Amino acid sequence: MARGAGLDADRIVKACLAIADEEGIGQVTMRRLSRDLDVTPMAIYHHVANKDELFDLVLDESLRAVEPVDPAGDPFDELMRWGRAFHRLLVDHPSLAQEMASRRLEGPVAVGAAGRILDLLARAGTPDDRADELLVALFSCILGTAQYRISRNAESARRGGRALPEDFADGRAGMRDRLSDTSITDQRFAAILTVLIRGYLPAAH
Question: 9-62 is classed in which CATH architecture?
């Protein structure tokens, strides 16, 4: 077992996500992580002090996969691109969505991304209070729809592809079919995000 030469945050994050995606976040331990990375547990402790710090690191570093907005770009286009990429990251890694729902994102990557969004909105003429509201609304929308999408996918898999029980809404014409088609697709998420962003940006945008 190696002592940790060449071990960096990127390797730790990738190994942690691989375990969480395959077996669930509960299976991520320092011992398991060190075994998968072929390093001693102490090598990991050089980067994080405990499991809480490990998860904080994973959440923050994972956001590097989402290219930040360009404050000089078109506000609507930049927010749409960023929002869709962030949503896709969470859908592809359900463990991230699970942990983000219970932890504050205060790492340098998250703070930097938020700062660029606020700079973009300031340039668009969005008042500070509205910009702050939109930032919170964006995160809530992206995380919430990702969690809903993940849970619907899991429920559909348990029911063999059926979103609802066979006897749901019997006797109400069309109701079952309509409620069965409430999944969040990429296209539907884009429509939701469009309404949210358009509602906050100044009319000129």
Answer: Orthogonal Bundle (1.10)
Q: Which strand (E) or helix (H) includes residue 177?
A: helix 175-180
Domain boundaries, the chain: 9-62, 67-200
- Tens place of pLDDT per residue across the chain (205 aa): 455 567 888 899 899 999 988 888 888 899 999 999 999 989 999 889 998 999 999 999 999 999 999 999 999 999 999 999 999 999 999 999 999 999 999 999 999 999 999 999 999 999 999 999 999 999 999 999 999 999 886 665 565 555 555 555 555 556 556 655 567 899 999 999 999 999 999 875 5
Phi, psi of 39 (to 5 degrees): -135, 170
- pTM of the model as a whole: 0.82
Closest alpha carbon to 15 in 2, 31, 34, 1: 34
Q: Which CATH code fits 67-200?
A: 1.10.357.10
- The answer for residues whose C-beta is within 8 angstroms of residue 114's C-beta and 6 or more apart is 135
